[in-house]
Design a protein that fits this description.
The mean pLDDT is about 95. This protein has eight helices and seven strands, in the order E-H-E-H-E-H-E-H-E-H-E-H-H-H-E. The protein has a seven-stranded parallel β-sheet with strand order 3-2-1-4-5-6-7, sandwiched between helices. The chain has about 250 residues and is of the alpha/beta class. Helix 1 crosses helix 8.
Length: about 250
């Protein structure tokens, strides 16, 4: 059987103080990895770090803005100085903005694309610059149902997540020769703070339950198996793919 263990590996998870990012960090830690949490709110980040450390996990916090090229470069240089080598990068940081295209301000469009797409490029580039000379690594970008399908009023998010799919393929095309596997996960509708208002909307809740063959929303922890697979040596010949974890939603009309 292939090795799914992450013992001896170090993983950096962006946007991991709460929500899906926290679930990703927890799953990687439970598989044996040392985890570096990232966010822009130091207090919330430290609270999450303390909670995971109390469970016995090897975890540290690294606060920086993933949309700022200078901060990303400084953060990776600081990890270098500490002797910390990132073997696994999970580009999870993301935001949402719901508004019709005709009413959408350029600033909101730009903010969503910078956080959901450009940040993955910036962090991925810095990680790959180090992974290659060390013999390889794993990059897992977090896409969405919207990497494949659009919905009204969330155009910036949809464009960014579609871009994640193509960024992942581009990373694979350029970095596979350096033994870097770049893949993505496409979560379906998950129970998180970001989707709280949608969960409480009877019409939207009914849509999700009716549209997904599983007949329910997903739970963040249900993404952990796919993540550990893509982060481990079990996926060494998997590259440039997006794995949808969506209760079957993208499989049906």
């Amino acid at each position: 059987m292939p090795d799914f263990s992450l013992g001896g590996k170090t993983a950096l998870v962006t946007g991991s103080s709460r929500g899906l990012g926290r679930a990703f960090a927890t799953g990687l830690a439970e598989a044996g990895a040392k985890v570096i949490l990232n966010g822009i709110n130091p207090d919330r980040l430290e609270a999450t770090r303390a909670e995971l450390a109390a469970l016995g996990h090897d975890v540290q916090a690294c606060a920086f803005d993933v949309t700022c090229e200078d901060q990303v470069m400084v953060a990776f240089e600081a990890l270098d100085a500490q002797g910390v080598a990132v073997d696994i990068l999970v580009n999870n940081a993301g935001i949402q903005h719901r508004q019709p295209l005709l009413d959408l301000a350029l600033a909101d469009w730009t903010r969503v694309l910078e956080t959901n797409l450009t940040a993955a490029f910036l962090c991925g580039r810095e990680a790959a610059r180090r992974m290659g000379p060390r013999g390889g690594g794993k990059i897992i970008n977090i896409g969405s149902l919207m990497s494949q399908l659009a919905r009204a009023t969330v155009a910036p998010y949809t464009v960014a997540k579609g871009g994640i799919r193509m960024l992942t393929q581009s990373m694979a095309a350029e970095w596979a020769g350096a033994n870097i596997q770049a893949n993505a996960i496409g979560p379906g509708y998950m129970i998180t703070d970001m989707t709280q208002a949608l969960q409480e909307d009877p019409a939207f809740d009914g849509f999700v339950r009716g549209r997904a063959p599983a007949g329910r929303w997903g739970r963040p922890e249900e993404l952990q198996g796919a993540l550990v697979f893509l982060a481990s040596s079990a996926s060494d010949y998997v590259n440039g793919q997006i794995l949808y974890v969506d209760g079957g939603m993208t499989a049906v009309l």
